[in-house]
Amino acid sequence: MWQPRDPAIAAKARPEVYSTTARRFHWLTVAAVFVMIPLGLGMTYRGNTLDIWDGLTNGLYSAHKLLGFLVLWLTAGRLAYRLLHGAPPDEPTLAWWQKAGSHLVHWALYGLLLVVPLLGWIGVSLFPALTIFDLFNLPALAGPDEAAAKRVLALHGWLAILLALTIAGHIGAALYHYFIRRDGVLRRMLPGLR
Known about the structure:
- The chain has helices at 7-13, 20-49, 55-85, 96-126, 146-181; strands at residues 131-132, 136-137.
- By secondary structure, the protein is an all-alpha fold.
């Protein structure tokens, strides 16, 4: 026979969630990155592979640079917020190695979300290609050096691929916890889930 649960026990069974501010930082970053990665692939395909340098290609580059600049500052704000306010405790049902892996992936994501846009900004400074939609320029971080720009932008591209793969693993792990383990990991970022 069903018995009502003690509210104190039910409260303890519910996972603690990230704060509203932390969740907003997370989902804004997700939205920006999910637009920025296809933009990056599209612009480099049009510009570098097809050698088409028209208004559309320039618009794709401008949008990518602007979103990268946004991601850099969103991540810096998000990291500062995390360091000042912390994060909820780990899901209690996780094994130690799952907790360690989770922390490693989260800090790798923070690092990549800072380094990848910063390298992009340095690369466009070196090129120089700082113009955004012919409206304004990003501040230059370095003087022109096209050879160095190519090296920095190549590293930016490879690390962007690593970032995309890390994000895919992060999403896969979240879905595994929600659909297979049925624990509270995903509810920490989406508290409305059942």
